[in-house]
C-alpha cells in the first residue's frame, strides 16, 4: 500500500518525494510528467537528483486512492482552483499543505482552503526554512509540522520525519502559515535593499522590522507569539532574506538594481504582498514594509520612493 502521495512536481514537491521515498513507497502526481518519467529526474526544477525506484509517477489522481497521507505542494495561487476541480479525490484523509502564501481570491491560507474543500480531511501544514535542493540531497533540515489534531499530529510527525528531515510539531496552524507567507514578502524587500546597494545594516534593520510586522498580524489573527519565534517564522525569514537561493530575494534584488527579474520562477511573495496588504488594511494592522512591497511590485512606487517613505515614517519606540 502506498502510504504517502504528493501533489505537485515543482522543486519542493519533488524534493519531498525523493527524501520520503528513501523510507518507503511514494507516489508523485502532476499534470505533465512525461519528461520526468523518461529521465527519472526533474531536470526542469531539481536537476542532478535522480528519482529513487520507490518513487512512482502518475498523472491520474485516482491513483492516489491508496495513500493515507497526501502532501499538497502546489503554488499558492493555483491551490483554490485545483481543489474546486479535484476535492473529491482528496477528502477523508490526512492532507498536508506545503504551499506558502495567502490566496488572493479568498484571503485564506492553504489549510483553510483544504478544510473548506475537504471537510472530512485532517489538515496539517508543513513549513519552515528549507531549500528543495538541500532536502533532496539529504542535507540536515528542520521544519514545522502544524496540526490541530492531538492524535494525527504526532502520527504525521513520525511518518514524515527522516534521518535528515527533522519535524517539530505545533498545533498553531495560523502562526505557521503566516510566518511562511509574510517572510516571502520581507525577502523581496530585503532583496530590494541589497540590489539598491543600501548595505547589510539596512537589511538587518528591515528583517527586524519585517519580523515585527509578521508577529503583529499573526497575533491579531490568533497565532501564538512563540510560533513566530520558531522555524516557521524567524527561521524561515532569516533563510529567505539572506540567501541567493531564495527566489523572492533574487526577485527583489533585481528590482532594487533596476534589472529584469528572472523568467519562469515562481515568486510567491508578489501575490502574497497584495493579499496581506488587503488583509491588514481590513483589520487595521500597520504593515508598512508589506504595503511598500505591494506598491513596488504593482508599479505604484519605485524602490527609491518606497525606501524614502519607510525612512520618513514618524519616530517611535521599538
Automatic annotation (TrEMBL):
Binding, sn-glycerol 3-phosphate: 100, 128, 130, 183, 236, 246-248
EC nos: 1.1.1.94
Assigned keywords, A-Z: Cytoplasm, Lipid biosynthesis, Lipid metabolism, NAD, NADP, Nucleotide-binding, Oxidoreductase, Phospholipid biosynthesis, Phospholipid metabolism
Active site (UniProt): 183 (proton acceptor)
Pathway(s) per entry: Membrane lipid metabolism; glycerophospholipid metabolism
Chief subcellular location: cytoplasm
Family: Belongs to the NAD-dependent glycerol-3-phosphate dehydrogenase family.
NCBIfam families for this protein: PRK00094.1-2 (NF000940), PRK00094.1-4 (NF000942)
Protein name: Glycerol-3-phosphate dehydrogenase [NAD(P)+]
Originating gene: gpsA
Amino acid at each position: 500500500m502506498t502510504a504517502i502521495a504528493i501533489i505537485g512536481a515543482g522543486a519542493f514537491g519533488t524534493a519531498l518525494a525523493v527524501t520520503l521515498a528513501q523510507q518507503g513507497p511514494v507516489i508523485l502526481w502532476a499534470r505533465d510528467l512525461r519528461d520526468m518519467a523518461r529521465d527519472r529526474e526533474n531536470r526542469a526544477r531539481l536537476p542532478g537528483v535522480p528519482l529513487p525506484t520507490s518513487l512512482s509517477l502518475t498523472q491520474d489522481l485516482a491513483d492516489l486512492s491508496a495513500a493515507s497521507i497526501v502532501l499538497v505542494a502546489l503554488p499558492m495561487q493555483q491551490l483554490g482552483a485545483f481543489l474546486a476541480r479535484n476535492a473529491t479525490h482528496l477528502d477523508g484523509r490526512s492532507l498536508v499543505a506545503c504551499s506558502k502564501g495567502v490566496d488572493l481570491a479568498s484571503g485564506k491560507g492553504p489549510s483553510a482552503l483544504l478544510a473548506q474543500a475537504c471537510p472530512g480531511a485532517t489538515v496539517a501544514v508543513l513549513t519552515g526554512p528549507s531549500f528543495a535542493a538541500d532536502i533532496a540531497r539529504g542535507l540536515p533540515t528542520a521544519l514545522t509540522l502544524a496540526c490541530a489534531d492531538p492524535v494525527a499530529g504526532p502520527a504525521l510527525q513520525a511518518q514524515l520525519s527522516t534521518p535528515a528531515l527533522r519535524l517539530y510539531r505545533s498545533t498553531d496552524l495560523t502562526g505557521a502559515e503566516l510566518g511562511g507567507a509574510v517572510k516571502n514578502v520581507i525577502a523581496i524587500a530585503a532583496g530590494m535593499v541589497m540590489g539598491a546597494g543600501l548595505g547589510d545594516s539596512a537589511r538587518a534593520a528591515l528583517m527586524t522590522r519585517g519580523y515585527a510586522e509578521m508577529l503583529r498580524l499573526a497575533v491579531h489573527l490568533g497565532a501564538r507569539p512563540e510560533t513566530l519565534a520558531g522555524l516557521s517564522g524567524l527561521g524561515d525569514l532569516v533563510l529567505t532574506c539572506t540567501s541567493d537561493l531564495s527566489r523572492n530575494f533574487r526577485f527583489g534584488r533585481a528590482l532594487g538594481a533596476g534589472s529584469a527579474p528572472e523568467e519562469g520562477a515562481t515568486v510567491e511573495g508578489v501575490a502574497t504582498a497584495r493579499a496581506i496588504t488587503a488583509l491588514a488594511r481590513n483589520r487595521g494592522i500597520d504593515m508598512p514594509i508589506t504595503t511598500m512591497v505591494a506598491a513596488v511590485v504593482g508599479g505604484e512606487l519605485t524602490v527609491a520612493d518606497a525606501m524614502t517613505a519607510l525612512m520618513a515614517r514618524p519616530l517611535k519606540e521599538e
